[in-house]
Structures are given as structure tokens and as C-alpha cells.
Amino acid sequence: MSRVPMRDGYGKALLELCRLHDDVVVLDADVAKSTRTDWVRQKYPEKYVNVGISEQDLVGTAAGMSLTGFVPFISTYGVFLTGRSWGQIRNTVCYNNLNVKLGGAHAGISVGPDGATHQALEDVALMRVIPNMTVIVPCDWYETYKATMAVYEKNGPSYIRFGRNPAPVVTTEDTPFILEKAAVFKEGQDVTIFANGMMVYQALQAEKALKQENIRAEVINVHTVKPLDTDTILCSAAKTKAVVVCEEHQCIGGLGSAVCEVLAQHCCVPVELVGIQDTFGESGLPDDLMEAYGLGVSSIVQAVRNVLKRK
């Protein structure tokens, strides 16, 4: 299994968008190397703007540029983009439904050594609660590239969340990607595992382990958290009658909450959540942190066992 940073997919997509479209402009908060927007700075300097370490100005400047006909893609660490500039995102971008694309880098506990201050664990919750915002959590390099290309075609605000470190590549160039449509990666009958981001790979590994226990798990990649593909979620939940949701984010307010909101209204089945349990992260190696904070394969397997007891 090869590993490639998701941010590389984001950077490559920005280069392609700059090549294809005269209206694309890329804005950055002085972290170009980290977000891969330095690739744009080097090849298309006329399309690159560095506003400095000033996230609120980053969003406000992009909003103004969108009103003149540009399609701005803005990028910085997800924890600062969604946290420090939440008011500008809500009141300037989303309230006016402006065509601004947000790239939240360094998301999740797998940021590793940078520690709690830089590990975006609340960003999905902060973004999905705002009207007009589309929220996407791709699972690997290819999907990050496809998601970035796709949001250009969708008018209005969007937030794409991606990590820093090399992530397992679970899709291919030919794997279908449809914005707002969840993808069934494995079919099963006993339990449904909904996942996104890095947790899609973990879920697929858990599915293999569960086979050894004669448990047939359905694995669904819910890359678009908002708007949620309720039809696919409800269809699978009605079939398996047991659900586990996996995300590299707080269990409160993210994909797990979104899925539970839908199931509570339309298909009441037992649910277990695998995610960050209302705590901050810490500095450490990415794989060690994933295990320490309950995001490993064994945690998913145990969650499946638990939910099957409640079925």
C-alpha cells in the first residue's frame, strides 16, 4: 500500500485549475510550502497572493476577489482557517453565498509532532453548521485532487479538509468520484461502517479483520459531509441494521453526528462512534497517535462487536 500526502493532490489540482481557468486565484497565509500552494507561486506567480499570517484578512480578501469575478482558493492550516476566521467565513462568505473555496490543511490527529494547537479536530463541526457551506473530507491523494477539481464547478462556498502526512492510497485515478455522493467501497450485510478521510483505510483494514470472525461489513466512504448523501446512508443502514461511524475528528459535531441526525429521524438502528473522544491531541508520531486516541483498526473492530450486541 503506497502512501502519498493528501496535500500533494490539493497542490496538483490547483496547478491544473490555474492552467485551465483564467479566473482561478490562489491565496495563502504564509504557509505555502505546507499547503503546496508554493507550486502555484512558482509556476503561476500572477495567480498567487500571500496575505501573511492573517487568516481573517485571507478570508476577507478572497471574498472581495470573488465579487469581482475571480474564483479564489484559500489555504492554510485547518485549525486556524476555521477557528480564527470563523466570523468572516460565516458573515462575509457564507451569508452572501460567495464563490470562495477553502482548503484546510494539517487536519486531524495525524498531524503528529505539531501537537494539539495545530491538530484540527473540530473543523468539520465548525464548517458544516454554517448555511451554504459544502464540506468535503477526501480519503487519499487521488480523492483530494478530484474534490478540489470538483468544487470549482460548484458555485458557492466549500471547505476541503486534508492531512499533512503521507496517507494510504485506497483509490485510483479511475475510481469514480461524485461530489455529494457517498461511495460503497465494500458490500456487506451484517454492519455498515461509514468513514471518511484517513479512516477509510482503517475501515477497509477492519473489514478484512472482521471477515475472520464471519462478520460481513459494508464500508462506505462518506467524503461529502455536507450536503450528506442521506439516500445511501439510509439504504445501507436499513439493510444491515447496525452502524459504526469512523472519523479523524471529534465525535461531537462531525460525520458521526451528521449520520446520527439522519438515522434518528428516519431509521433508528444502533450506532457506535469511532473518533476523538472530547479531548485535545498531543505531540507524537502519527501512527502512534492514531492508536492512542482510539482510531486504530482494533478500535473499529471492537466498535463493530459492540454494535452487533445491540442489534
Strand line-up of the largest beta sheet = 3-2-4-5-7-6-12
Sketch the topology as an H/E string, one letter per element: EHEHHEHEHHEHEHEEEEHEEHEHEHH
Radius of gyration, taken over Cα atoms and rounded to an integer in Å: 19 Å
How far the N terminus sits from the C terminus, by CA atoms, comes to 34 Å
Query: Roughly how much helix do the residues carry, as a percent range?
Result: 40-55%
What overall geometry do the principal axes of the alpha carbons give? globular
How does the helix and strand content classify structurally? alpha/beta
Poorly predicted ranges (pLDDT <50, ≥5 residues)? none
**Would you tell me the overall average pLDDT?**
97
Strand content: 15-25%
Count of extended strands: 14
Total DSSP helices: 13
The profile of the biggest β sheet is: 7 strands, mixed
Explain this structure.
- With about 300 residues, this protein is of the alpha/beta class.
- It has 13 helices and 14 strands.
- Helix 1 (about 5-20) packs parallel to helix 8 (about 140-155), helix 4 runs parallel beside helix 6 (about 85-95) and helix 9 crosses helix 13 (about 295-310).
- The chain is globular.
Could you give the topology of this structure?
Blueprint: E1 3-5, H1 6-20, E2 24-28, H2 32-35, H3 38-43, E3 48-50, H4 55-67, E4 71-77, H5 78-84, H6 86-94, E5 101-105, H7 123-128, E6 134-136, H8 141-153, E7 158-161, E8 166-168, E9 183-186, E10 191-195, H9 199-211, E11 217-221, E12 224-226, H10 230-240, E13 243-250, H11 255-266, E14 271-276, H12 286-292, H13 297-309
Parallel strand pairs: 2-3, 2-4, 4-5, 5-7, 6-7, 10-11, 10-13, 13-14
Antiparallel strand pairs: 1-8, 6-12, 9-11
Helix pairs in contact: 1-8, 4-6, 9-13, 10-11
